[in-house]
Amino acid sequence: MSSHLIEIFEDKKLLEKIKRRLPHLFQLAELESSRAGKTGMEVGSVRERIIVALLIYKFGENNVETELPITEPEVDAKVFGEPVSIKTITGKGFSGVKLIWTVDSQKAKEFRENYYPHCDILLVQINWNDIGGFYYLPLEAQKRLFDRIGRQNYIKLPKPGTNPRGVEITKEALTGLVEDSDSKKIVIN
Length: 189
Known about the structure:
Layout (H helix, E strand, L loop, with lengths): L11 H21 L1 E2 L2 E2 L3 H17 L4 E2 L11 E3 L2 E9 L7 E3 L4 H10 L5 E7 L5 E6 L1 H11 L1 H4 E2 L10 E3 L1 H9 L4 E5 L1
């Protein structure tokens, strides 16, 4: 089944709007989430709301569900009933993207043992003063890569004794997903 999300990356007018407006909106998100010159963790939630607003703009309010139970990990919205995870990162590389937020090492281990990709991902890489991107990482590509490299190479557990705040997808896995032929990308300056 093909996801409706691919339509974002085929809509030429919307692509231009995203390239032009997203950096400005994300800059406002950082300003809103800053104290004493430092950007707070809540910037992720503000960025997520910006992407949800984009989904509503593209697909209509009736087709984007945002009132989801907090118990549903990873899923940030549903588009036409299909779950979507929204991830944002700042910087050049593809590291630090959380699959689940937790400081509990036992929960982290349980998550890794039970995890299997279950929803499309929209990933935004913010790279101020350089090239960033807006990516669509389809569920099928995630499953293919996960099955090929295995959970140990796909999921990075937090280092014991640190406060990393979550379980991450490995840099290698994320790079593989971004480069997958089924994934889509909008280059944003």
